[in-house]
Every structure is written in structure tokens, then in C-alpha cells.
Amino acid sequence: MTLSPNEQRLAQTLRGIEIQQRQDGLYIKASSWIGVVQFKSFVLLIRPKLSNIHIMRMLIVTSGLERLKQYRTTRDYELYDTNISLFDLVALLLTDACTIIVKEGLLQGYVTEEDSLPVMRGRLRLTDQIRRRYGQLNRLECRYDDHHANIVENRILHTALELCRRYVEYPYIRNRVQRLLDIFSAVSQPLDQHWKSIQASMTYNRLNIRYKEAHTLAWLIMAGLN
User: How far apart are the first and last CA of the chain?
Assistant: First the structure.
């Protein structure tokens, strides 16, 4: 296996992980870090050496993830299968947070839509009507507000669940991800590649505050795999 130039640059930025290109393949040595690194041609998964380590306690005390101990989880996370990866455990937390949201009801909101319609709805996009359909009355270029669940709060979770479906290994967690993804796929679309700008501008109020915990995990997953 040969690293591409972009993968070589990525390898150089990793702290605590030594990656060397050799004639017979790659030499990889990890010191004090565990986790998942997504390269273009492979996924590097680093697990702890100790078989009896309480990995969820590690998550709780890790800087930046302290709030995990406050999550309203639906199950006990005393998981004794040491083959479960750190990423799978974060995905499990996400599925719990999403399950709570689904049970409480997915948030809906008004989203501005633009479409070509046979009847007038909302406001006429006069410039587009003249440019695209001058002299035509069978189709009207309209701009209107539609009330549905394809809003940014749900699209964030949809995107994170899509990533989990691709990379989760543990069968039970993968099945939970798929069931939730079926629900979110029916009502929303995933975010595009500009999700970081959405993260920076995301605000919470009394209506969407219940999404904040799930979003924290979703951003963590997207930052690690995108």
C-alpha cells in the first residue's frame, strides 16, 4: 500500500502516531492515542492494549467530551465486549440521543422552497419567470414556505447517521443506526460538504434545545470522518 501525497500530509499531522512508507507496505506505531483516522484508501483503527479497560470512563474524562456523562441515555453502557471500537461507542451514544428525539417527535419548521408549479403558490419569482418561461402560463416559477421535517436540525443527524452506517462494525449498533437512518431518510436530506459553516451558525432555543446533545455527537463524528 502506498500513501498518496494528501495521505502523507495527513499522516504528518497525527500526534502520537508514527506512519512510515516502506517497500513492503506501511509501518504504523501508536503511542498514547486511540481512535479512528480516515485515510482515502483505508481506515486506521487504534484500540487500547488493555483488555479490561473501562473505555466509556475514558470518554467521560477526556477533554472536550465531559458532557457525555450528562447524556440522557436509554441503556447502561457497561459493555464488556472489548472488540467494540471507540467509534462504535460514540455511534451508540448518537443512536440513543436520536432515539429520544424520534420518540418525542421530529422537529418540523418552515423552509423556503423554489419550484416550477402549474398553479401559483406563494410569490412569483418574476425574474426567473421572464428568463425561463417568457410568454408561458402553464408553469410558474414560485417561491413559497413549506412546513416539513427537512430542516437543518434533522439534516445534521441524518448526515452523522449516514457516516455511522458506513463505518460502524458492531452488528447491534449497525442495526440501530440503520433503523434510525430509515426514519430520517424518509423526511430529510443529508447536509452538503459545507457543514462546518452550519455548525458555526447553529443556535438553540426552547424548540430545538433537545437536539443539542445529539448534535454534539454528530459534529464529533463528522469532524473525524469528513
Answer: 22
pLDDT digits (tens, 9 = 90+) for 84-109: 677 888 888 899 999 999 999 999 88
Q: Once rounded to an integer, what is the mean pLDDT over residues 115-134? A: 83
Answer yes or no: do 9 and 31 share one domain.
yes
User: What burial class does residue 150 get, using C-beta atoms within 10 Å of its C-beta: 0-12 exposed, 13-18 middle, 19+ buried?
Assistant: middle
Instruction: Say whether both 98 and 162 belong to one domain.
Output: yes
Spatial distance between the Cα atoms of 91 and 76, rounded to a whole number of angstroms: 15
Alpha carbon 221 to chain centroid, angstroms: 5
Distance between CA atoms of residues 224 and 35, nearest Å: 9
Query: Are 133 and 212 found together in one domain?
Result: no
Q: What is the pLDDT of residues 11-49, one digit of tens each?
A: 888 877 888 888 888 888 887 677 788 888 888 888 765
- Locus of grid cell 408549479: 117
* Number of DSSP helices (H) and strands (E) in the chain, helices first: 8, 7
* Strand, helix or coil for residue 14: coil
Q: Are residues 135 and 212 in the same domain?
A: no
CA torsion angle 154 157 162 165 (round to 10): -130
Q: Which three cell numbers stand for residue 77?
A: 453502557
Cβ neighbours of 144 (radius 10 Å): 15
Does one domain contain both 141 and 194? no
Residue-number span of the structural domain to which 114 is assigned: 109-147
Are 110 and 146 in contact by the 8 Å Cβ rule? The answer is yes
